[in-house]
Design brief:
The complex is a heterodimer. Chain A is 35% helix and 13% strand. The two termini of chain A are 29 Å apart. The radius of gyration of chain A is 22 Å and the shape is globular. Chain A has twelve helices and ten strands. Chain B has helices at 3-12, 31-41, 47-60, 79-84, 113-123, 139-150, 170-187, 230-236, 240-247, 266-270, and strands at residues 17-24, 91-96, 100-106, 126-132, 155-161, 201-206, 251-253, 256-258, 283-287, 292-294, 298-302, 309-318, 321-323, 325-327, 331-336, 347-350, 358-367, 373-374, 378-383, 386-400, 405-407, 411-412, 417-428, 441-445, 452-458. In chain B, the strands form five sheets. In chain B, strands 7, 8, 9, 11, 12, 13, 15 and 16 form an eight-stranded antiparallel sheet that branches. Chain B is globular. The chains are: A alpha/beta, B alpha+beta. At the A-B interface, α1, α2, α3, α4 and α5 of A face α1, α3, β2, β3 and α5 of B.
């Protein structure tokens, strides 16, 4: 797999071209304003659904092109309207796609904001390595908020279950405040969870970083209202409308590099909570948990102490696209212990200021 | 489906297109069940979610005599909503068929229905309005259709639900269908010769969300209905962007200027970008809101305080690709022949197609805030990529959504739709919403707390009767 590139792959270029190169039947250039445009709109539309669709085949963008265009529009809006944005970057696939979209949005210029990583101290080493290489390659500034430092200073306490994902909120808010970030890009998607299904693309956070789902601004057309007062900040989710499969199809189409653990590899694992957990410094089997070597891959990459692997022989991105399309489990259901804490685990974390 | 057959399918399939639709309905008309049925029958629900719903159905004793699962639980949302048994907010759902990826804005019906319907409809290519076959067209239905007409939603599909409870009676369906068409005529909705623009397609489909009749597959229990099932309609309708790319003139609000000077992307340079050639690179980034543009096209640049300036498009760039042509809704960067001072907030448009900018704004406002609108109030107006101050000069009327009459009013409250005249602090290239769904839309924002107060739709100037109360 090659590195991440802003020069589109031949496939991507072809995709765009084939969407546009066909002659556009019925295109009226310089449509006079006023009645004419309205009348044309009415008259040309066909009541028969099937015939209307076939007449329009030549001009349509693919769903990935439409989603990409929407995300780039949002990224540019936030950069234009905010003083100091930052992008949450964990090295996970969603944040990698986010960064790729940002490189495309500002080409040939540099991505004009820093990336922020909240380090649980329980990361997969290869993901941290990937993070550092990516930041270096794109010439970005990396800001790190450390869960470990907060535990060491006594501002956070280790949880009984050892999971550090919920502990990320405090260092995250601290980093936002200290760096005066007024907008923070996240790779959250609405298909991930029922709390995220109700999240806005631009989502206001109060002085405590809290999300108030009952008091959200209506999101109208493609006009995003990011106004906020001192102390408040905005979370921006440009890939809100992408599904897990969209993400993988896009990674395939754009030839985007990911940490290797997203692809099938041999790993020492043990079974816990119906998931395969990696053996590592912070993830040790109990005496009754048998360690075996299995061919696995990760569908999500988070805190090593709560992220499970799935059995898989998908060694390439094309294999993964096929696997995800056929999957019968949601990615969080399959691989995240922290979302099994309760029916409203994500909702509770989000209200407190989580991603 | 085995992995092998799926892989083969993926290779041969055409790229899918994106289609956004919203649902609107009244209390208890089975909207949640319909949404659940669409997700379930299109196989969008994965087994862990289905298991959770089945467990909850059993725990709560739902699922009915058939002992099945309560499909409405598939769209169950936040804890606060479960505790109160209501839906608070628009929820977004995702599913796909071989032909299309769908984004569904699931809008709650009973609380703040106008706010939610306006929100869902503003981005929707189609809206599915539910009617309970036992109840027929209600006042709420009229209100929903009225909002959809106002927002110029491209397609409306009326789903007459619970036809199983009226014994699949053709007569009941035909009566409701006739009522819907009567309301549509009154509204100027679904009429091709309508001056009101608005909705162009209207479909009426008999369904049973509970049993799945005519939702994904055509039902044998409604032999008198020969039209397509609901999902077939959704799969085949053109998206609003496709219509706008085809039929309207090029409009491109400038989001920002890309002028990297020394700060070229290091990865692009490493991949061989010619540093010297890009030293003076300058392009205008944005999303095409309607129409299309080709290299060589003459365009007008609309900026406040300037006469429109005409120049030529010399390049359309997208992340290292040079395009000959681009269309709505693509995000691109446009290069122009002449060095003109252009900034965020300016609009690039097909030459000679935009009328003079104006500081007098006549509009319909869908009021979405608990803070009422008063005459004399100062607000912010966000239009395209510009935000300006505005003074509410007067409220000229309020729409009675049930009768479609405009009544006198001097203020607007939550869920009201009314007409108002505003004076802007700077002229904007306003266009009539009827013909320009993007450049005719704006937000009204509270300058104090920054909240969105209203969805605004630009109307034509009333011309010589500027100071009179007017009705459109």
């Amino acid at each position: 797999m090659s590195t991440y590139t802003t020069n589109a792959t031949p496939d991507a270029a072809q995709g765009v071209a084939s969407g546009l190169s066909e002659p556009r039947a019925g295109l009226i250039e310089d449509q006079p304003r006023g009645e004419g445009a309205g009348a044309a709109f009415g008259v040309t539309s066909t009541p028969g659904a099937a015939s209307a669709a076939s007449a329009l085949q030549s001009t349509r963008l693919s769903s990935l092109d439409t989603l990409e265009s929407e995300a780039i529009h949002i990224i540019r809006e936030v950069v234009a309207e905010f003083e100091k944005p930052a992008l949450l970057f964990s090295g996970g696939k969603d944040s990698v796609v986010m960064l790729h979209l940002a490189t495309k949005a500002f080409w040939p210029g540099k991505v004009p904001f820093p990336v922020l990583h909240v380090d649980t101290g329980h990361n997969f080493p290869e993901v941290i390595d990937f993070r550092d290489r990516t930041v270096e390659r794109l010439g970005l500034k990396l800001v790190v908020g450390s869960v470990q430092e907060f535990i060491d200073s006594g501002e956070l306490a280790e949880r009984a279950d050892g999971t550090r994902n919920p502990l990320q909120t405090v260092p995250l808010l601290d980093a936002i405040q200290k760096n005066k970030f007024d907008a923070v890009f996240g790779g959250g998607r609405r298909d991930e969870d029922k709390a995220r299904a109700k999240e806005r693309i631009l989502s206001l956070r109060d002085e405590f970083g809290q999300w108030d789902p009952r008091n959200q601004r209506p999101e109208l057309w493609n006009l995003y209202n990011g106004r906020h007062t001192v102390g408040q900040h905005v979370r921006a989710f440009p890939i809100s409308n992408w599904t897990e499969l969209d993400i993988w199809r896009y990674i395939e189409r754009e030839n985007i590099e990911l940490p290797g653990l997203y692809y099938a590899h041999e790993r020492e694992v043990f079974a816990r909570d119906g998931m395969w957990r990696a053996v590592g410094e912070v993830s040790q089997p109990l005496p009754n948990e048998e360690v075996i070597t299995k061919l696995v891959r990760y569908r999500t990459v988070g805190d090593m102490s709560c992220t499970g692997a799935v059995e898989s022989d998908a060694r390439t991105v094309a294999d993964v696209v096929v696997e995800v399309a056929a999957s019968t489990l949601t990615e969080r259901g399959a691989t995240r212990a922290d979302d099994r804490i309760s029916e409203a685990a994500m909702e509770d974390r989000k209200k407190d200021g989580y991603f | 489906m085995s992995t092998e057959t799926l892989a083969a399918g993926l290779e041969t399939a055409l790229p899918t297109t994106l289609f956004r639709f919203a649902t609107a309905g009244s209390v208890d008309d089975g909207k949640s069940t319909l949404v659940g049925r669409l997700l379930h029958d299109s196989k969008a629900i994965l087994s862990d979610t289905l298991d959770a719903v089945a467990r909850t159905s059993a725990d709560r004793g739902f699922g009915g005599e058939k002992g099945g699962i309560d499909l409405a639980l598939l769209t169950d949302g936040l804890r606060a909503e479960r505790e109160q048994g209501i839906t608070i907010d628009v929820a977004y759902r995702y599913f796909a068929t071989d032909r299309r990826s769908f984004i569904l804005a699931d809008c709650p019906g009973h609380v703040q229905y106008t706010k939610n319907t306006v929100t869902g409809a503003s981005t929707a290519d189609a809206v599915v309005v539910l009617i309970d076959a036992r109840k027929g067209v209600l006042e709420q239905t009229r209100r929903h259709l009225s909002v959809l007409q106002l927002l110029r939603v491209a397609h409306v599909i009326v789903a007459v639900n619970k036809v199983d409870l009226v014994d699949f009676s053709e007569q009941v369906f035909r009566d409701i269908e006739a009522d819907v068409q009567k309301v549509a005529r009154e509204l100027g909705l679904g009429r091709e010769d309508s001056n009101a623009g608005g909705v162009t397609d209207l479909f009426v489909v008999p369904v049973s969300a509970l049993d799945g009749d005519n939702v994904v597959d055509r039902s044998e229990r409604t032999p008198w209905y020969t039209g397509p099932a609901l999902l077939e309609v959704l799969e085949s309708l053109p998206a609003a962007d496709e219509l706008e790319a085809e039929l309207e003139s090029f409009r491109f609000p400038v989001q920002l200027v890309i002028r990297p000077q020394g700060a070229l992307a290091p990865d692009a340079v490493a991949a061989g970008l010619d540093v010297e050639a890009y030293r003076d690179y300058r392009a205008y980034a944005g999303q095409i809101t309607e129409g299309s543009v080709k290299v060589g096209d003459e365009v007008s640049v609309i900026s406040p305080g300037h006469e429109p300036r005409t120049t030529t498009v010399i390049g359309i760039d997208f992340a290292g690709q040079s395009l000959d042509e681009a269309a709505a809704p693509q995000s691109v960067a446009v290069r122009l022949a002449d060095e003109i001072d252009i900034a965020r907030g300016d609009t690039i448009a097909a030459a000679g197609t935009v009328r003079e900018s104006t500081a007098d704004l006549y509009a319909s406002l869908a009021w979405l805030s608990p803070k009422p609108l008063r005459e004399g109030q100062k607000v912010l107006v966000k239009h395209g990529t510009r935000t300006v101050q505005a003074l509410v000069r007067n409220v000229t009327g309020k729409l009675d959504l049930a009768t479609f009459n405009v009544e006198p009013a001097s203020n607007l409250e939550l869920n009201d739709i009314g007409h108002a005249q505003l004076r802007l602090s700077a002229p904007l290239p306003l266009e009539n919403y009827l013909h320009h769904r993007r450049t005719g839309a704006f937000l009204v924002i509270d300058p104090i707390d920054g909240n969105t107060l209203a969805a605004g739709l630009v109307k034509d100037h009333p011309g010589d009767h500027e100071d009179e109360r007017y009705v459109i």
